[in-house]
Structure formats: C-alpha cells, structure tokens
Specification:
InterPro entries: AB_hydrolase_fold (IPR029058), Dienelactn_hydro (IPR002925), Dienelactone_hydrolase-like (IPR051049). The chain has 254 residues and is of the alpha/beta class. 31% of the residues lie in helices and 20% in strands.
C-alpha cells in the first residue's frame, strides 16, 4: 500500500490562493459509475490535472492533493478505479483493495479517464491543457496513458512501477516506446520495488523515441516519500513540487 489514512500531501512551495472541492460521481461511456473528487481554483491559471491514486483508489490523500493543486491555480480531479467491482464504497484503510486491483482492465480504466477529462473540459474551467499525475500504480497508469490518444499535454509519474503487467497488455517499461506525450518521472533512490536499472531503461527508451522527458531519482528516498510526515525528505518533496509546476507551466504554454 502506498499511503495510509494518515498520509497527507506536502504543501506546494508557492504562494497559493483559495480553492474549494467536492465529491462527485461520474459515469463512463459503458455506464460505469465511479467516485471522483474535483477541486476548483478561485484564480485559475489555465491548466488541469487528472490524479491517478495508488492501489487503494480514491482516498483522503488524493482529495487533499487535488485541493493543493487547485490552490496553485490548477483545476484537479482525482478518480477512483473500482466502481465496477466495489461500487461507491469507502476507500479508507479497511478497504480490501487487492481483489479489485486484480480485476482492473486498462480499456475500462481509460474509459473512466475519458469521463473525468470530459467533466473537466465542460466544467467552469473549460477545456485547458490537461495532465495525468499518478502515484505508484497510478504512476504506472500515467505512463500507460501515454500510449493512448487521450490528448494529454504531459504525464507525471511518482514511483511508477515499471514491471507490472495489466491484463497481459505489457508493462510500462515494455511499452515505453509507444509513449507520445512528455514525461516527468519521479523516483526514490531507496525504493526497493523499482530497481535503478529499470528506471535507467525507461529513460533510455524515451531517449530512443525522442519523447521529451525528465527522469529524476532522489538519493536515499523511499517509496511514498512525497508525504508531509516524511520530514527527512521535505527537500525532495519541495523539489518534486517545483518540477511538477514548472513542467505543467512549460507544457501548458506549448
């Protein structure tokens, strides 16, 4: 599990504005109803993010992360993965997520992503450059989203697992050559689940295909270092926030 119920996202290192958010329910093209949380900036800057959570789905960490993005002026929506198999139930620490992770299908996930994008593009912010921001399993799904025609302006992946194969469709590392959007990858150097040679192979594949990318590894940082409680990695979290905001600003301008 990536984050427990007590985890909280670090505060962005910029002077923020006010924002407000709400729980909503979205409907995908196949009729699936799934939970999401949307956060609106009071002073929008003209960019949007779709947040892909970790294996637990939509829990409090990601709702607060959506608000932190909105406080920087970026409209955000965080989505749940398990509407088809777990309905609209809570995703707190008691949620037995693994049976639902095992049933996750990429095609249905991308259908849910499209519903979230459509919501953003028809909301008060209108259609703006949109980015995927994922964590752990969500980081993997962020990279895999880059192989689809989802119209993203860029992809951000925290500690993206590179060897997980969803439904026999290939791992993120195997499919890295198909990624068509700019990538910002953020990894912990002490993350036991993501070997350094896999991160290096990802960077090499993106180099070979010419996709714009920035792959950053923070020495000594573990999986899930991006947490307000991890004060010893506060500098890494601050740097990660700065890189994300620069990445979004640069590719929104394009």
């Amino acid at each position: 599990m990536c984050y427990d119920d007590n985890a909280r996202p670090p505060v962005p290192p910029v002077e923020g504005g006010s924002a407000h958010g709400e729980d909503i329910v979205l409907t995908a093209a196949d009729g699936n109803r799934f939970a999401a949380y949307v956060a609106y900036p009071d002073k929008p800057l003209g960019a949007q993010v779709v947040i892909y959570p970790d294996v637990r789905g939509l829990h409090q960490f990601y709702k607060e992360l959506a608000l932190r993005f909105a406080e920087t002026g970026i409209q955000a929506i965080a989505i749940d993965y398990f509407g088809r198999t777990a309905g609209l139930t809570s995703r707190d620490d008691s949620f037995e997520f693994w049976p639902h992770v095992q049933q996750l299908q990429l095609a249905s996930f991308f259908s849910d992503v499209k519903a979230a994008q459509d919501y953003l593009h028809t909301s008060q912010g209108g259609k703006q450059p949109t980015f995927a921001v994922g964590f752990c399993m969500g980081g993997t799904l962020s990279l895999l989203s880059g192989t689809q025609d989802l119209g993203y302006a860029g992809l951000v992946g925290f500690y993206a697992g590179l060897s997980r194969n969803f439904g026999g469709n290939g791992t993120a590392l195997e499919r890295a050559g198909e990624i068509k959007y700019p990538v910002l990858g953020l990894f912990g150097g002490a993350d036991q689940g993501i070997p350094a040679d896999q991160v290096e192979a990802l960077e090499q594949k993106l180099e070979e295909t010419g996709v714009e990318h920035e792959i950053i590894t923070y020495p000594g940082a573990p999986h899930s270092f991006f947490d307000r409680r991890s004060t010893e990695f506060a500098d890494a979290s601050t740097d990660a926030w700065n890189r994300i905001l620069r990445f979004i600003a640069a590719h929104s301008a394009k």
